């Protein structure tokens, strides 16, 4: 009997290591992260019809007009977020299909992830259970508010484009913590915010393309 887990079987292991090689060629250096991306079965997070394309370096539709970021974007954001540190408690805004969440879950002690579309959360929850990922707390809500009751976080990652840095999120970052987010509307750039003793330091990284952050929740 075959299941979605055998999925594309050995081929998926091979395609995964090819994906990791491409990430290395494009400049990703964090070996711990590369090992995790080589182990998380990305094809389980996309629609079955798209599973064969899951390891190409492209964003894919995940339903509800949303997209799963390309492997390179996931790698780049996670590398900047981690900066070689072991992460304790990370907040993700925009769970989507849960792939980025799963990568974070293997690199951090605890991951909190907020998603505004209830149906996406339900799907992600099922995959986490199947993959035996137990250190993720999912919340249905508007991620701009963060999760004050779980703060502070040593890492925050926003996976939808936002016009300005939400004050609530900077406040939920611990001193020494790092936040990575796509800022802007049509033209977007990746921003790194580092929380310091006396405020926050901002660094502009590269141009990116994300779906916009939308206020409010839907079921
Ligand atoms: N990390 C995701 C990216 C999904 S796309 C993945 O790899 O699949 C961005 C996601 O952000 C979408 O699922 C969208 O519904 C969600 N989103 C948009 N605005 C939001 C908000 N205000 N709060 C929480 N999630 C939001």
From TrEMBL:
Enzyme type, top EC level: transferase
Q: What is its EC number?
A: 2.1.1.77
Q: What Pfam families does the record point to?
A: PCMT
A GO molecular-function descriptor: protein-L-isoaspartate (D-aspartate) O-methyltransferase activity
Q: Does the keyword Protein transport apply?
A: no
A single cellular component GO annotation: cytoplasm
The cross-references to CDD domains, in alphabetical order and at most eight, read:
AdoMet_MTases
Cellular compartment(s):
Cytoplasm
Q: Which residues form the active site?
A: 69
* UniProt-listed GO biological process terms: methylation; protein repair
Keywords, comma-separated and alphabetical: Cytoplasm, Methyltransferase, S-adenosyl-L-methionine, Transferase
Q: Which reaction does it catalyse?
A: [protein]-L-isoaspartate + S-adenosyl-L-methionine = [protein]-L-isoaspartate alpha-methyl ester + S-adenosyl-L-homocysteine
Q: What does this protein do?
A: Catalyzes the methyl esterification of L-isoaspartyl residues in peptides and proteins that result from spontaneous decomposition of normal L-aspartyl and L-asparaginyl residues. It plays a role in the repair and/or degradation of damaged proteins.
What NCBIfam families does the database record attribute to this sequence? pimt, PRK00312.1
Question: What family classification does the UniProt entry report for this protein?
Answer: Belongs to the methyltransferase superfamily. L-isoaspartyl/D-aspartyl protein methyltransferase family.
This one is known as Protein-L-isoaspartate O-methyltransferase
The species this protein was found in = Pelomicrobium methylotrophicum
Taxonomically, what lineage is the organism?
Answer: Bacteria, Pseudomonadati, Pseudomonadota, Hydrogenophilia, Hydrogenophilia incertae sedis
